[in-house]
Write a structure and sequence with these properties.
Elements (H helix, E strand, L loop, with lengths): L2 H13 L8 H17 L4 H15 L10 H16 L15 E6 L6 H14 L4 E5 L5 H14 L2 E2 L8 H14 L4 E5 L8 H14 L3 E7 L4 H13 L4 E5 L8 H10 L3 E5 L7 E3 L2 H8 L5 H11 L2 H12 L6 H13 L2 H6 L4 H6 L8 H12 L3 H5 L6 H11 L3 H22 L2 H10 L8
Parallel strand pairs: 1-4, 1-5, 2-3, 2-4, 5-6, 6-7
Antiparallel strand pairs: 7-8
Helix pairs in contact: 1-2, 1-4, 2-3, 3-4, 4-11, 5-6, 7-8, 9-10, 14-17, 17-19, 19-20
Length: 450
Amino acid sequence: MLDTLTQRLASVIKTVRGHARLTEDNVQEALREVRLALLEADVGLPVVREFTARVKEKALGQDVVGSLTPGQALVGVVHDELVALMGGTNAALDLATTPPAVILLAGLQGAGKTTSAGKLARLLKGQKKKVLLVSADVYRPAAIDQLKSLAAQLAIDLFPSDPSQKPVDIAVNALDWARKHYHDVLIVDTAGRLAIDEAMMAEVKAIHAAVKPVETLFVVDSMQGQDAVNVAKAFSEALPLTGVILTKLDGDARGGAALSVRQVTGVPIKFAGVSEKMDGLEPFHPERLASRILGMGDILSLVEEARKNVDEVEAKKLADKFKKGKGFDLEDFKTQLQQMKKMGGMSGLMDKMPAQFAQAASQAPDLQEKALKRTEGIINAMTPLERAKPELIKASRKRRIATGAGVQVQEVNRLLNQFEQMQKMMKMMKSGGLAKMMRGMKGMLPGGMR
């Protein structure tokens, strides 16, 4: 998501290249591109106007110092303003209250409230919180069953909802249960509608008044574009929201909701849904998303993802192998595929890498789950010697491997080509290519990092 915005903003650098400083004329020209890029990404017009006005005010007359080009200087200003637009820093949940702390989820049907309730419960469980889930949605037949299934899958306590009761009574009974059973957090999943209506708003306001949540989170589908912003405005006027959960940020929509919803609601985006899996809810970091939008990558999130998922023993074995001057072979390639799978596949990794490096890796294999299994099957059909010395694999060996893996010879050829691309990437990293790239990026980073 936001790839188009990234590409359009990349052209901003070129529009002011060669100038000694940022002036009214070259800033105006660059901001025209910024304005078009934001509008194409479905950012609301009032938000775009305010954003470009602030960028212009801060950029005009700014001296281009050190190794910065005027384009990089302007990108620095745009980065800072994108961060400010999305809330500045990550806003954590405020659960500082006498337990149980109540979290109320509100939003339209289909926004992802129930799934977000499960993901949030999982995240809090990982923080050693005793969580109770409850569904106050008695209208959608599958809503209660869906939450029950998620709770069982995640081993989270669930309050049994009675569809014959009023939603307010269900929420109040769940709160009483949470108190008696010493839960730290109660997450209330409320009903939504396909569109905003008075009955839905009255109901969620009544639940809010009855359980007095410390966190009222508006769940919004980022793929709704401008509609998401209009819905956000309506909910913020009806409820004292404390934050936003932006779902489906991994989708292919234009993504303007991420840049508009903070401005419209006046409350921070606290979490972003980045995959359909139960671990796919992440704290929202405005500065990291701003860096990704501008093609700088999101190295911090990548490092955090690696810490969670990468097998340190395997990583050390590969590092030691490199130190001894041994090459990268197909057995290493298979291990790396398995590690990448844990981190969301190549698409998940490249989404967080700086544009320069992501482009170099564009020839990497399609690492979706089915393709991964097929790739592993081909490598498993090879002998240990063939994995260690891929150059030995000629026509007859390819035919034998293809038969053993149950694939066509063309797929074996494709795998070997992909392996060569991965080898080049590993050589680049071994020879300091990644470090050189990071040093080159420093000139584009805002603030003290320059």
